Amino acid sequence: MITTLFQQLPHIYQSFLPDIFNQHIPVEQYADCSNCNMCKPTTIVEDQRFFSPVTKCCTFKPIVPNYLVGGILIDSKKPTKIHTYVDIGEKITPLGYFPSTKELQDYAAIIPDKFGMDDRVQCELLDDGNCSIWQHRNSICSTYFCHYFKGFHGKQFWEDVRDFLQFVEETLSAYCCMMLDIPVHYLKQSTTNFFINVQEATQHNGRISKLTDADMWGPWETKRDSFFKECHKICSNLTTNDVMSLNPTTYQVKISALEDSLKTMQTPLIPPTLLFNPNCKIIDFDETQTFFYVDRLIKLPAILQHIVKLFDGKTTNQQIISTASQSYDVDMDNHYILHLYQQNILILPTSE
């Protein structure tokens, strides 16, 4: 199954993101938000941490840049919390929607062991268990998966997508503000970068601004709804070259990293000799399927529990393919071996 990045992201990005976002990538079939495997408690593995069925992975409160807030106001079929905050002027600044300092501190407190488990830090943008702003979600929400189909190669790829999109969010949200005469006194002390905001909240008790609403919003103090819609309009009319020209050096660094990780994910090198991961647990399920567990449960054909043990760090992959065919009547190929390697079921024979 294949998809594209454009199919995974807010529609506005099709106007100005580069062609790499239209290239085929695998569907993240191990991470199904509508039927979350991480919300199915089991006694199979004692140290497997499961998400709360109430929150799933949404114990994270996003920063939503201004042009996406505009998209929410324009497109949403029913009011969201974003609409409310825009109306009352709470958790809203010219750069977008922001969690409170306390919420950022709560997020830092649950990472990593309680992520997805503590109902008290549930994202307020959930509506009956579903994301109310799904079509306009931000870079982190769009690129997080609890289990990557391409394993560690997929994880690196999606992290590079996230980093590129965070750069785009920071750049375009500030650009919109400058175009619409938002006071620089506000802009110089603010950013949509989530990780910087978490750091500020935990180390310095948040970014404390002494600016009044008038000083922050300038000519848009009483026209917040119109401001965000105008931000969406500005970005909808941008081209790829427009976005690149706003910060060409950082753009090239981020997009080059993304291109490299996509290439690695699509055409990875398979080590000629591999070792069955001694930390991988094999758990019987039924006559046809078996669980393999490193840091996530994966259900695979039961016959594999015998074949993976042939990977001793000395026997070549090609020899094992031949043995699997002759001794177990299993048609294994390099693509399947690669998948086991990417999921850390098979590892390099040394630590290099």
Lay out the secondary structure.
Blueprint: E1 2-4, H1 5-8, E2 24-26, E3 64-65, H2 66-75, H3 81-88, E4 92-93, E5 96-97, H4 101-110, E6 126-127, E7 130-131, H5 139-143, H6 151-179, H7 184-187, H8 194-203, H9 213-217, H10 224-236, H11 240-246, H12 248-266, E8 273-276, E9 281-284, E10 289-293, E11 297-301, H13 304-307, E12 312-316, H14 317-328, H15 334-342, E13 346-347
Antiparallel strand pairs: 1-2, 3-5, 4-5, 6-7, 8-12, 8-13, 9-10, 10-11
Helix pairs in contact: 2-10, 4-8, 6-10, 6-12
Protein model, in words:
With 352 residues, the protein is α+β, with helices and mostly antiparallel strands. 42% of the residues lie in helices and 12% in strands. It has helices at residues 5-8, 66-75, 81-88, 101-110, 139-143, 151-179, 184-187, 194-203, 213-217, 224-236, 240-246, 248-266, 304-307, 317-328, 334-342; strands at 2-4, 24-26, 64-65, 92-93, 96-97, 126-127, 130-131, 273-276, 281-284, 289-293, 297-301, 312-316, 346-347. The strands form 5 sheets. Strands 3-5-4 form a 3-stranded antiparallel sheet. Strands 12-8-13 form a 3-stranded antiparallel sheet. It is elongated, with a radius of gyration of 23 Å. The model has no long low-confidence stretch (mean pLDDT 89).
Based on secondary structure, the structural category is alpha+beta
> What portion of the residues fall into strands of 2 or more residues?
5-15%
* Total strands: 13
pLDDT < 50 runs, ≥5 residues? none
* Strand order, sheet with most strands: 3-5-4
Order of helices and strands: EHEEHHEEHEEHHHHHHHHEEEEHEHHE
Mean pLDDT: 89
Rounded to an integer, what's the Rg over CA atoms?
A: 23 Å
Please summarize the sheet with the most strands: 3 strands, antiparallel
Dominant shape: elongated
Amino-to-carboxy terminus distance: 33 Å
How many helices? The count is: 15
Into which percent range does the helicity of residues fall? 40-55%
